[in-house]
Description:
Blueprint: H1 3-28, E1 34-36, E2 42-44, H2 47-72, H3 86-105, H4 113-121, H5 127-146, H6 150-170, H7 176-191, H8 197-208, H9 211-215, H10 222-240, H11 243-260, H12 265-270, H13 273-280
Antiparallel strand pairs: 1-2
Amino acid sequence: xxxxxxxxxxxxxxxxxxxxxxxxxxxxxxxxxxxxxxxxxxxxxxxxxxxxxxxxxxxxxxxxxxxxxxxxxxxxxxxxxxxxxxxxxxxxxxxxxxxxxxxxxxxxxxxxxxxxxxxxxxxxxxxxxxxxxxxxxxxxxxxxxxxxxxxxxxxxxxxxxxxxxxxxxxxxxxxxxxxxxxxxxxxxxxxxxxxxxxxxxxxxxxxxxxxxxxxxxxxxxxxxxxxxxxxxxxxxxxxxxxxxxxxxxxxxxxxxxxxxxxxxxxxxxxxxxxxxxxxxxxxxxxx
Length: 287
């Protein structure tokens, strides 16, 4: 792993996001991309567009700079699956736009992963159902780009799609989804000794400047942001984890989706002091 390249790319994505964050949030405050948070306060759902914009700008800059840097430093090795890889761009863009559809035109009378799947089964289209079906189609396409085996492609597709929805399920309180994304990424990188860092860390960098805004209830991550970051984590998982690790993660994701379909995650967190403190850390909520 070339940590110099990884650090440079992460720094660029973070810097671009920091430069974009304030004007983008102000601009989106007067658009349909405004929604009520858990207290009823109306906030712009700017997180997805900010992270996606930073990743696209990093990709454009990186694809231009890479040949120049390679000519200056011929011995410098570049890791695979950089942010400007066509598959990374396609996956991140697709998941962001599907989430954006839900942010802009979502019918929130149908809630929950199970409810959207039931609506799809009865041929009733909802924006959440379109997001789920479209995300799985994108993830399956990504799976077949990596494997010729149906079984392995389906496993990778499920990991990407369920990871995206898992971050969505966390996005119920300020900062919770981002904390979940950061914690999962940190644990994964530690366990895998940094493998695949170039895939996930640019997304971490792109979201960091938005984190304080989310915590202070100035803006929300939105379905676009949760979808993007969850898919990025899922992509890291399919690229970095061994087969047994993918199996363990799939079991955890399926259990998490099953459990949250019949339990309140917020109520469960509130009953456990340590989780409650972590959940509310950085916010203005009482501990």
